[in-house]
């Protein structure tokens, strides 16, 4: 049954890929097949699927990857999502445990505006198949506090609050290209520093909850904006001493005017790169 499922899934994806507005490349810029992409998922313990939040095809592909990994790992699959904040984990657990209604869950979880079109299919698949869903992101009120006041401001919060973000102090590698980009943004100066710190506290918190929930002999799939995992920076910079590189796979998406060849600036962004035309179908 498992082999039939995988064959059917791959056939559908191959057909979709042939007719779609994207191509798949490895980090060196060599085009690969959908079959090779799926094989790259095997034997990986930690998989990051970086996205543009408004790409319809990427959200569909994330669901297919979730199904594929569940077929392989069963209830030893854990799915983490940037789109859920850590203080809502108990609401997720209540919903997955059948204790509250879908309406209560959706009303109380501070869901993104595009939740129903883009993320609900993954959440419901995970719930219906008895896998685990982890809210990995820092609650936005604390990230906003860092943006306006700097990372040291987090020290002032009570101990219960501190359970919702990475343990302090958070060591930020300012030599990373992604951090340099944030520092050099137009606002610059002190606000640039705070922007970098606000981003870092999100990445460190996502890394923290990934580490806490890594399954034994299973796989952890994490869905996040591509900036959080491109070039194995962002979240991965806080995991480099915890998970070996050969057990980690980073997937990202880019857009180009023409997709027959991966542009040099998009090479090395991730292990697997989905390259879309710039007019890719948007959900919002």
UniProtKB/TrEMBL annotation:
Signal is among the record's keywords: yes
Keywords: Signal
Record flagged with keyword Cell division: no
A matching Pfam family: Cofac_haem_bdg
Domain of life: Bacteria
Signal peptide residue numbers: 1-18
Start and end residues of each Haem-binding uptake Tiki superfamily ChaN domain: 39-237
Protein name as annotated: Haem-binding uptake Tiki superfamily ChaN domain-containing protein
């Amino acid at each position: 049954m498992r082999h039939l499922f995988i064959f059917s899934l791959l056939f559908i994806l191959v057909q979709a890929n042939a007719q779609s507005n994207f191509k798949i490349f490895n980090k060196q810029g060599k085009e690969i097949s959908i079959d090779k992409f799926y094989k790259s998922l095997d034997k990986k313990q930690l998989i990051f699927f970086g996205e543009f939040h408004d790409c319809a095809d990427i959200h569909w592909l994330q669901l297919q990857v979730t199904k594929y990994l569940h077929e392989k790992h069963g209830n030893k699959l854990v799915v983490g999502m940037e789109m859920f904040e850590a203080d809502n984990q108990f609401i997720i657990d209540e919903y997955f445990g059948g204790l509250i209604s879908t309406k209560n869950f959706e009303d109380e979880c501070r869901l993104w505006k595009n939740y129903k079109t883009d993320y609900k299919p993954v959440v419901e698949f995970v719930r219906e198949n008895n896998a685990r869903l982890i809210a990995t992101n820092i609650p936005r009120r604390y990230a906003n506090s860092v943006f306006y006041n700097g990372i040291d401001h987090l020290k002032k919060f009570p101990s219960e609050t501190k359970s919702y973000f990475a343990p302090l102090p958070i060591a930020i590698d300012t030599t990373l290209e992604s951090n340099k980009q944030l520092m050099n943004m137009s606002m610059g100066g002190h606000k640039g520093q705070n922007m970098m710190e606000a981003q870092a506290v999100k990445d460190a918190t996502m890394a923290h909850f990934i580490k806490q929930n890594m399954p034994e002999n299973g796989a952890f799939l994490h869905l996040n904006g591509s900036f959080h995992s491109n070039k194995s920076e962002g979240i991965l910079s806080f995991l480099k001493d915890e998970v070996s590189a050969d057990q980690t796979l980073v997937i990202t998406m880019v857009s180009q005017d023409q997709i027959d060849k991966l542009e040099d600036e998009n090479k090395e962004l991730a292990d697997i790169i989905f390259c879309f035309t710039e007019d890719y179908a948007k959900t919002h």
